[in-house]
């Protein structure tokens, strides 16, 4: 029985991180992606947004 190390190098194991995840800012902590639209195209843009965001039961 041989106790020699493997000849192929192994990939290093990922390091365990014990930081507090609540100390880090997540994408949910920002206002980005919450439906703000930068275009102000007037009434046509408002109608388009209304039709895009209308629930399916409001036909």
Layout of helices and strands, plus pairs?
Blueprint (H helix, E strand, L loop, with lengths): L42 H11 L6
Core attributes:
single chain, about 60 residues, mainly alpha, about 0% strand
Short description:
This protein has one helix and no strands. It is mostly helical and 59 residues long.
Structure notes:
The chain has one helix and no strands. The longest helix is centred in the last third of the chain and has 11 residues, at 43-53. It has 59 residues and is mainly α. 19% of the residues lie in helices and 0% in strands. It has one helix spanning 43-53. The model has no long low-confidence stretch (mean pLDDT 75). The chain is elongated, with a radius of gyration of 26 Å.
Largest sheet: none
Cα(first) to Cα(last) distance is 76 Å
User: What Rg is obtained from the alpha carbons, in whole angstroms?
Assistant: 26 Å
Provide the helix percentage.
10-25%
Number of helices: 1
Order of helices and strands: H
SS strand fraction = under 5%
What is the mean pLDDT?
Answer: 75
**Low-pLDDT runs:** none
Shape: elongated
Please tally the β strands and state the result.
Answer: 0
Which structural category fits the helices and strands? mainly alpha
């Amino acid at each position: 029985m041989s106790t020699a190390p493997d000849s192929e190098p192994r990939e290093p194991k990922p390091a365990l991180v014990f930081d507090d995840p609540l100390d880090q800012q997540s994408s949910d902590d920002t206002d980005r992606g919450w439906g703000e639209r930068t275009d102000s195209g007037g009434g046509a843009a408002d109608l388009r947004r209304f039709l895009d965001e209308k629930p399916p039961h409001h036909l």
